[in-house]
Design brief:
Blueprint lengths: L1 E7 L4 E6 L2 H9 L13 E3 L10 H9 L5 H4 L4 H17 L1 E4 L2 H9 L8 E3 L3 H9 L17
Parallel strand pairs: 4-5
Antiparallel strand pairs: 1-2, 1-3
């Protein structure tokens, strides 16, 4: 899987994961990749800098002298954390949790064997990669579903 920074024709930036650069091109040309803000299907890759971390010893030393919560010290932007909380609430309110049946149900809906509906659930990385390769619209979520937390 490869993560790309993307932008739409209206200048909105976002990220998404793809099986390969070729699969990205296939999905974009088929109109399966759209902007989450404006729904534009005119998508292109944006410049993306790789994440660079301090050495482990340096990061531990900096955290020891910092009163910032661990997630903040690890580089989590509070705006991003808030956006993820909002996304999680939206997904859980507007889709059905199907657990480990996600791959089977997503594929069945894509093939027309069952009615379309919004779902979220669990998939192994190889299963998720195969869904994307087959053109089934699926995205990884940046949080653990409520049903999976203790």
């Amino acid at each position: 899987m490869i993560r790309f920074a993307l932008k739409c024709a209206n200048g909105h930036g976002f990220e998404s994961w793809f099986a390969s650069s070729e699969k990205f091109a296939d999905l974009v040309s088929a109109g399966h990749v759209t902007c989450p803000e404006c729904d534009s299907a005119s998508i292109s890759k944006d410049l993306m800098a790789p994440p660079v971390r301090a050495s482990r010893k340096k990061a531990v030393k900096e955290r020891a002298h910092d009163n910032t919560p661990t997630s903040m010290a690890a580089g989590t932007d509070p705006e991003i954390a808030d956006a993820i909380r909002k996304l999680k609430a939206h997904v859980e309110e507007n889709s059905d949790y199907v657990g480990d049946r996600f791959v089977k149900e997503a594929r069945a809906m894509h093939e027309g064997a069952m009615p379309q509906r919004s779902i979220h659930g669990e998939a192994r990385s190889d299963e998720a990669r195969k869904l994307i390769e087959d053109g089934v619209p699926a995205l990884p979520l940046p949080f653990i579903p409520r049903q999976r937390t203790n």
